[in-house]
TrEMBL record:
Protein name: Prolyl oligopeptidase family protein
UniProt organism field: Perilla frutescens var. hirtella
Organism classification: Eukaryota, Viridiplantae, Streptophyta, Embryophyta, Tracheophyta
Assigned protein family: Belongs to the peptidase S9A family.
């Protein structure tokens, strides 16, 4: 969607050692209008996805590496672990993960009251 405003992000990947110039980027997930990626965070073992469907948010953990056989597949094909959220979450933002080798990832959620959630993903 070049040159058009969007309200979500795409998750792309390209091999690090790719000799191609320009790089060959590919979508990690198949196009799904129900999957709106709001933000992502990484550690060495997991990918944390913050998604939105309408006004409802979801928080999902995927084990890394994703594997070449699943690139371009739907989110459900990656067997994501859905992390429980309180009702009526109006926004979720990741907190910087300064230790890439720690499986502890933090997010800040806002609702009718302020919640700071920090959980270990294993």
């Amino acid at each position: 969607m070049q040159g058009q405003p969007v309200d979500h992000h795409y998750l792309l990947r390209s091999p690090v050692a790719s000799p191609c110039s320009p790089r060959n980027w590919e979508n990690v997930f198949a196009h799904d209008p129900q999957l709106i990626i709001v933000d992502v965070d990484f550690c060495n073992t997991h990918l944390l996805l913050i998604i939105r469907n309408g006004r409802k948010y979801g928080l999902y953990s995927l084990s890394l590496p994703l594997g070449d056989d699943k690139v371009g597949a739907f989110l459900k094909d990656f067997n994501p672990q859905s992390l429980p959220l309180p009702d009526h979450v109006s926004q979720i933002l990741p907190v910087s993960n300064y230790d890439f080798y720690s499986s502890t990832m933090c997010v800040t959620m806002s609702s009718a009251f302020y919640i700071n959630f920090c959980g270990e993903i294993n």
